[in-house]
Design a protein that fits this description.
It is built from 18 helices and 29 strands. By secondary structure, it is an alpha+beta fold. Among the domains are: 106 residues, Aldehyde Oxidoreductase, domain 3; 106 residues, Rossmann fold (3-Layer(aba) Sandwich), CATH 3.40.50; 89 residues, Dna Ligase, domain 1 (2-Layer Sandwich); 90 residues, Aldehyde Oxidoreductase, domain 3. InterPro entries: ATP-dep_AA_Ligase, ATP-grasp, ATP_grasp_subdomain_1, BL00235/CARNS1_N.
C-alpha cells in the first residue's frame, strides 16, 4: 500500500503453515516478535490449542488467495517506509522470522486446555506487575483458579480484571502446619477438575509442594523445597562450604567461637538468616563486634512464624563478580540457561560496614563474563539443583565467581566488569549463594521473555500441569541469542522523609524524552505521601526501577543508566 503524497509504503506479510499440527501457544507470534525493528503490528489468527492445516499451493488465482488467508496463523504489518528501503526491511524481517520462529511452535499431537490453581495471585501489586502471568495462561489455554485471601484485587467477579481468572477461591494463606491441607481442600472443593497447582511466592513454595503431594499432582519433592529454602542446608551440600556454620543466637555463637578459633575466622564474613528472601538482614562483617550485632539482627528476623526459626548461616564473603542464573530443566536436563551480571551493592564496597546492605542496584543482560566462566556457572549450578533433588522446573539462582578474570572497576564514571590487572593462576570457582525453585521476579522474567523469547511464567505453568511437549518446545530461545542488551536499574533512596513527588520514575522520562525512547517500563515504588526510608533505615526498598534496552551494546546501555541516575530526582515534604 503506497502513499503517493509522502512517497512511502506500508507492507504486510501473512504467515502460512507448511505442516499440520497443534499450536503450542496462541500468542506466540506476538510474544516472539516483540521488539523486532521493522514491525509495527503483529496479528494472531489462532486460538489456544487450535489445530492448524498447511497450505502449500502457490497464489495464482483468487481462490488460492482465499485459501491462504483461511490457513494463515497470523499477519505482520511493517512500519511505514520509503520505497527505497522497503526491500531491505522485508529481507530483515524474513531474517528475524527465521531467528525467532525456528522452534516447534506447532506440535504433531493434540494440545488440550488445562486448569491450574494459582496460590497467591500477586498480593498488592495489581495488574501492572501481573499482566504477563495472565497473558501466558491465556495464550497457553490454561484456565486459572486463584486461591487467595479475601479482599484480593482479583476476587470481585464484576471488576475489570475478573476475566483474567476462571474463578476465585477464598483461602487463608497463613503459613502454618495446616496450610497444605487448606490448599488441598480448596482444590478438592472446586466443581471442575484441576490439573495442577503452583505459586510464585517464596513463603508458600514448601506448603504448595506438600499440597500437590496430597493431591497427587505434578510437583518436585516437598523435601527439595525445604532444603532449597534453607540457606545453610543448601550450603552444606556444596563442595566449597568454606567453613560455613550455623547458629541460632549470640550465645551459641560465643559457644562455638573458642578464643583460638575467633582469631582464625576468615573475615570478611557474610551473615544472613537461614530462612529469608531478598537481602533482608544480610550483612558483611569484618570483626567480632560486627559479627555479634549481625547475628543478633538476623536471628530475630523470623521470630513471628508459628515455628520461629532463629537460625543464621555464617560463611565467607566471596570477593568476585555476582551473577543471577536462570535455568529451565526437564527430567534433569538443562533446556535453557541465561546468566546476567548483578552489579555491586553498597555492602560490596571496600569500606562497607555491617550497616551497608546488599539491596540490588542493577542487573545487566547478558553477562559479559568470559564464555569459560559462564559455562562453569551453568554446569556448577545445574549440579547444585540436582543435588537438592530437583529434576524439572524453572530455577532462579545466584552465585559469585571467585578468581574470576574480571572485576568491577570505574572508567569515565562508568562502572563495569573489566579484565583483572593482577593476574592469578587459579581457575575460576563458582560459589553458590542460593537456589530459588521458582521463576525470577516479574521484571527479570519480562526481560528474559523480550530478550530471548523464553517466558518463565509459561514454563512454570506447563511444568505444574505436566505438559512436557509444550514445556520443551517453548524452552527454545532465539537462534542468535538475545536481541539486545538490557538492564534492570534500581534506584535506592539517598535520604528519607515523606515523598512529595507524585511519580518520580515517570516524571524523569516525561522531562527527558531522549532517555524514554529506550525505556521499556518504569515504576515508582514509593508515591506521594508515603514514607521514604533513609539509607540508615532497617527497611530495604527501592525508589524506582527502570527496564532499559540498547540495540547498540553494553557500553551504550551503561551510559544511558548513568544519565538516569544523574537526572533522577525526588522531593520530600
Amino acid at each position: 500500500m503506497a502513499d503517493a503524497a509522502e512517497g512511502s509504503v506500508v507492507a504486510a506479510k501473512l504467515l502460512i503453515p507448511q505442516k499440520n499440527g497443534f499450536i503450542v501457544r496462541a500468542d506466540f507470534l506476538e510474544r516472539r516478535l516483540e521488539g523486532c525493528e521493522f514491525i509495527a503490528e503483529v496479528f494472531n489468527f489462532v486460538s489456544p490449542c487450535q489445530e492448524i492445516k498447511s497450505y502449500a499451493s502457490n497464489a495464482h488465482t483468487f481462490q488460492d488467495f482465499v485459501g491462504m488467508f483461511h490457513s494463515a496463523i497470523g499477519g505482520i504489518i511493517l512500519k511505514r517506509l520509503s520505497k527505497d528501503s522497503l526491500q531491505r526491511a522485508l529481507s530483515a524481517v524474513d531474517d528475524e522470522l527465521i531467528n525467532r520462529l525456528s522452534f516447534p511452535w506447532a506440535l504433531p499431537d493434540p494440545v488440550y486446555r488445562k486448569r491450574l490453581a494459582l496460590v497467591e495471585g500477586r498480593r498488592s501489586t495489581g495488574y501492572d506487575l501481573s499482566k504477563r502471568i495472565y497473558e501466558a495462561a491465556s495464550g497457553l489455554g490454561i484456565d486459572i483458579v486463584v486461591l487467595e485471601m479475601a479482599g484480593h484485587w482479583l476476587e470481585d467477579d464484576t471488576s475489570l480484571f475478573a476475566h483474567l481468572r476462571e474463578s476465585f477461591i477464598r483461602v487463608d494463606l497463613t503459613v502454618n502446619d495446616s496450610f497444605p491441607e487448606r490448599i488441598a481442600a480448596a482444590v478438592r472443593s472446586y466443581d471442575k477438575p484441576i490439573d495442577g497447582i503452583m505459586t510464585l511466592s517464596d513463603g508458600h513454595l514448601v506448603g504448595v509442594a506438600k499440597a500437590a503431594e496430597l493431591l497427587g499432582m505434578p510437583t518436585c519433592s516437598a523435601r527439595s523445597f525445604v532444603l532449597s529454602s534453607d540457606k545453610y542446608e543448601t550450603r552444606i551440600l556444596e563442595s566449597n562450604t568454606d567453613q560455613a556454620f550455623r547458629v541460632a543466637s549470640v550465645k551459641e555463637l560465643n559457644e562455638k567461637l573458642s578464643a583460638g578459633f575467633k582469631q582464625q575466622l576468615p573475615y570478611p564474613l557474610i551473615v544472613k538468616p537461614c530462612l529469608g528472601c531478598g537481602s533482608d538482614c544480610v550483612a558483611k562483617v569484618t570483626n567480632y563486634t560486627e559479627l555479634v550485632q549481625a547475628v543478633e539482627k538476623a536471628s530475630a528476623r523470623n521470630n513471628e512464624l508459628q515455628h520461629p526459626n532463629f537460625n543464621v548461616v555464617i560463611e565467607s564473603y566471596i570477593d568476585g563478580p555476582e551473577v543471577d542464573a536462570n535455568l529451565v530443566l526437564w527430567n534433569g536436563k538443562v533446556l535453557f540457561c541465561e546468566i546476567c551480571d548483578d552489579f555491586p551493592c553498597a555492602g560490596d564496597s571496600a569500606g562497607a560496614t555491617a550497616q551497608d546492605n546488599f539491596l540490588e542496584t542493577q542487573m545487566v543482560y547478558p553477562s559479559s563474563l568470559p564464555s569459560k566462566e559462564l559455562s562453569a556457572i551453568e554446569s556448577s549450578i545445574h549440579q547444585s539443583i540436582l543435588r537438592l533433588g530437583f529434576r524439572s522446573g524453572v530455577f532462579h539462582c545466584e552465585a559469585r565467581v571467585r578468581y574470576s578474570s574480571m572485576k568491577y572497576e570505574a572508567a569515565n564514571d562508568i562502572v563495569d566488569l573489566r579484565p583483572q590487572r593482577e593476574l592469578h593462576f587459579l581457575d575460576p570457582e563458582v560459589f553458590l549463594i542460593e537456589i530459588n525453585a521458582r521463576v525470577p521476579g516479574y521484571h527479570c522474567t519480562a526481560v528474559a521473555q523480550l530478550a530471548y523469547g523464553v517466558d518463565y511464567f509459561a514454563q512454570q505453568m506447563l511444568f505444574a500441569v505436566h505438559d512436557e511437549a509444550r514445556f520443551t518446545a517453548l524452552a527454545n530461545g532465539f537462534l542468535r541469542g538475545p536481541q539486545h542488551t538490557s538492564t534492570i536499574l534500581d534506584i535506592c533512596p539517598d535520604r528519607g522523609g515523606i515523598m512529595k513527588s507524585d511519580d518520580p520514575a515517570r516524571e524523569l522520562l516525561q522531562n527527558n524524552p531522549e532517555i524514554a525512547v529506550n525505556v521499556i517500563e518504569c515504576r515508582s515504588w514509593i508515591r506521594k505521601g508515603e514514607i521514604v526510608p533513609g539509607p540508615d533505615s532497617k527497611l530495604l526498598c527501592w525508589l524506582a526501577t527502570y527496564w532499559v534496552v540498547s540495540k547498540i551494546g553494553r557500553k551504550d546501555l551503561l551510559k544511558q543508566c548513568a544519565e538516569i541516575r544523574k537526572r533522577f530526582h525526588y522531593e520530600l515534604e
